[in-house]
Amino acid sequence: MNLLQDKWINVQRKNGEIEKIAPYQITDTFETNPIIEIVTPRPDFKGAMYQFLIGLFQTVCSPPSEEKWQDWFWEPPHPDELKKETDRVAFAFDLFGEKIRFMQDMNLYSENDEEKFKPIELLFIEAPDESKREKNLDFFVKKYQIQNTCGSCSALALITLQINAPEGGSGNYTSLRGGGPLTTLLKLDDEKHSLWQNIWINILSENYTKSKKSTGKNYEYVFPWVTDNYYKFKSHSKTTNQDLHFLSMYWSNSRRLYLNKLEENGKCDICSEHSDLLVNTYRAKNQGIDYGGGGWIHPLNPYYFKKDKELGDTWFPHHPQPGGIVYSNWQSFTYGKKGQEENAKVIKIYLEERKEEQLRVWTFGYDMKQMKSRCWYESTIPIYKIPIDYAVKFEYRISLIIGASVQVANNLQKFVKQAWKKEGNTDFLKTSFFKATESSFYNLAKNIRDNIQKEEPFDNDSKLNWLKYLNKESLKLFDLYVESGSIEFENIQRIVNARQKLISENIGDKMKERIGLHVEKKPKTTKGVKKK
């Protein structure tokens, strides 16, 4: 099964038909009945499939200039032309090859101790680990739910794990971007656009993909698994961006794995399709590629600046956090903050150089805690183009309204806890608040963008109205959650006091100053001064 030459990707066409294609067929009947979307049985598979196609076309046909990028966006190459390009690297994409296997370590072929084979379900990030399986502690995700997978689902599980690889114990390293990175992809706002355009909008021209490291004779610095000792690509104890080619970032390969193909057919436990080949176990070994050497800036990931004892001052990739993807992170994920946070390279180039207007940002990823997957999050959020000359002013105004929202969310959490007089995790209160005010936030952000371009100020009335709105929504949630408690535990006076304090902190002088409103300072009074 070759992932570049065989039909294994389920897609939907404009007329609603579902079919399987090979990657080079993505532009088939582009003018009359284009392919518009990928169809997968799991959301993490869909995110992985998008990244696979972006990485593939970035690798084999990076446009030499922005002009060429524009040409191919509107008039893509014919499938025959794409096939010529993908055939050049097809040798690296055999899923069950005899000499090279896609994202797998051929050294493990000789390790035939079947007792050490791992069940295929452990390839899935949410699966209970081996210790929980042995002790029957798999309370929420039960073992033996996934026993056989078809070739397509096996490939997607492999890609998904290598992209998102969490901590896995001694020598089982995380992915190039750490465990469960947050991916941000551009997507066209109009759903009628083709899949090709939604892939191509995330492709960089060659100006941005140049590398000090050559691709090597057989692309060994791009596809590490094509060499026998791929896991030894490192200048020191850890692999840095100086050891591999820029394009290798699309092909994270931290785990040493080998899929065991069954010579029998049957039903896949993931997609429920009948398959001529199945996978039920795999081999694994630690000490793969350790990408912890630093210097990696993946084009599809936002980053934040942090001081690190080992790496020094450096940039770290964002990861989803408990509570999901809410607008308090919007500025970080889409525009960044100078010196503190950087948006993904593909978004930065779109904002600064490309003309397409109606785009959104598809954000997704696993919320991980060490080896444990807590949740899969994804969200599609708006992004507004802003001329570079106005970017600093826009960033400042957006930071004001987000700062106010974050503070009101914190106030809500604080005073609901006071009203309940209970301990425990109440982060859901903040998430509820951000979800309740999300639509109004994005409308205000768009108005701020429009007003800046008209060179209109962010007036005091607008700031005050935003504070009043946030206060109103927080009170709605306060009343909802406080009144949902058991009546025998309620203390009416405590609830009234907590509610009043919430109002006071939401629209008090400190909050007004936070959002940029002028507050008259009251003269200080001296107490207890005796007259002589």
Describe the structure.
The chain has 532 residues and is of the alpha+beta class. The protein has two domains: 9-308, no CATH class; 386-518. Helices cover 33% and strands 14% of the residues. The protein contains 13 helices and 14 strands. The protein has a three-stranded antiparallel sheet. A three-stranded antiparallel sheet has the order 4-9-6, with no helix packed on it. Strand 7 and strand 8 form a beta hairpin. The longest helix has 30 residues, at 391-420. The protein is globular, with a radius of gyration of 26 Å. It starts with 8 loop residues before the first strand and ends in an 18-residue tail after the last helix. The relative contact order is 0.10. Mean pLDDT is 90; it is low at 135-141.
- Shape, please? globular
The pLDDT mean sits at 90
Strand content: 5-15%
Uncertain ranges: 135-141
Total discrete domains: 2
Strand order across the biggest sheet?
2-1-3
Order of helices and strands: EEEHHHEHHEHEEEEEEHEHEEHHHHH
